[in-house]
Amino acid sequence: MTEEDLRAAAASILEAERTRVPVPQLSKTYPGMELADAYRVQDLWAEARIAAGAKVVGHKIGLTSRAMQLASKMTEPDYGRILDDALYDDGARVPVSRFIRPRIEVELAFVMGEDLEGPGTRVHDVLRATEFVTPALEIIDYRTEVPRAIVDTIADNAAFGAIVLGGRPVRPFDVDLRRVGAILSQNGIIEDTGLAAAIMGHPAAGVAWLVNKLAGVGAGLRKGHIVLGGSFTRPVDIRPGDVIQADYGALGAIGVSFAADAT
């Protein structure tokens, strides 16, 4: 893709985000689009959002489960940015109108206690550099039409919509993170359950992958950054009026509701 193509693609994602109207898949508009192009579109999108006043406060990791990688014909995860205007706390009432097609996933969030850079980062390096781990919900969203190729997802900030933080933060060595489980309920009905070991065998493994991937573009994680480690439940569609509860057992719970509008 030419630089002009890349900037036009990023502009289309920004427009879809503003209007809440999905645009055609970039993979169809630009049939030759490659993974490097998709990440460059994401970079340009982020630069525009930062120029408009947003701040990067972390990253999200997607495609961390084997099933999702097989479905997308990928052999590794992908990543996107978390911006400060997409953070919600436990008990929040989130306006559905800020999204196009919202869905919700159960995850763990790593909050960094120190800077961490690759290459060569391993799980124990992540645990050593993490201040605490806390339950989190990720709201995912699509700014392009479906079905999507992997380049569409990456260019679209890895389908990130927002993050909800809650529950009980724990030190990374105080619990066996692989065995952290959660029960996801929608309007009082259990929709799914999961175990964090589904995330590449250990939820910190995805963070280690991210650090090493960022090293390839001269970047890393910074103290205070939030990293969404990947989902260990299937995504659940969200509608106005929905009430979501995620019970993490000893790590507490997160509750969030979805309003029909911003009021």
Give an overview of the whole structure.
- Helix 1 packs across helix 3.
- This protein has 263 residues and is α+β, with helices and mostly antiparallel strands.
- The chain is globular, with a radius of gyration of 17 Å.
Q: Pick out the low-confidence regions.
A: none
What is the average of the pLDDT values?
95
Q: Structural class, judged by helices and strands?
A: alpha+beta
Approximate strand percentage: 25-35%
Sheet with the most strands?
8 strands, mixed
* Count of individual helical segments: 7
* Main CATH class: Alpha Beta
> Number of DSSP strands?
13
Question: What is CATH's topology name?
Answer: Fumarylacetoacetate hydrolase, domain 2
Key terms:
globular; Fumarylacetoacetate hydrolase, domain 2; single chain; alpha+beta; 7 helices; 263 residues; 8-stranded mixed sheet
Give a nutshell description of this structure.
This protein is an alpha+beta fold. The chain contains 7 helices and 13 strands. 27% of the residues lie in helices and 29% in strands.
What's the topology here?
Layout: H1 3-19, H2 26-29, H3 35-51, E1 56-62, H4 66-72, E2 78-83, E3 87-89, E4 93-95, E5 103-112, H5 123-129, E6 130-140, H6 150-155, E7 160-165, E8 181-186, E9 189-195, H7 203-215, E10 226-228, E11 236-237, E12 243-247, E13 253-259
Helix pairs in contact: 1-3, 5-7
